[in-house]
Amino acid sequence: MRPKKTRWIKCLPGERCFRPKCKSVRELSGVVLSIDEFEAMRLSCLQGMKQEHAARQMRISRPTFSRIVTSACRKVADALVNIKAIKIEGGCCQIRGERRK
Description:
Layout: E1 7-9, E2 17-18, E3 30-33, H1 35-46, H2 51-58, H3 62-81, E4 85-88, E5 93-95
Parallel strand pairs: 1-5, 3-4
Antiparallel strand pairs: 2-4
Helix pairs in contact: 1-2, 1-3, 2-3
């Protein structure tokens, strides 16, 4: 399996974990949303960008962007419908404006 291409993001999310108040921590399960999935949702769902433009911003192909945003939407829907926590972590990302060393 080849390594993942670096996905470029605007910034890291401020809050990294969201959980419903109606369940105690002991009985709560969760989903993990990668940082690139978070960025894809921000670009397409919140900012309303077309996938082609958003993919260019993240410096990935449009089909790859589509897979990422579909996965993210599925995880968030699962968390909302099944009352789960959402944790944001991981992914192969670089913040725009930073240089790799």
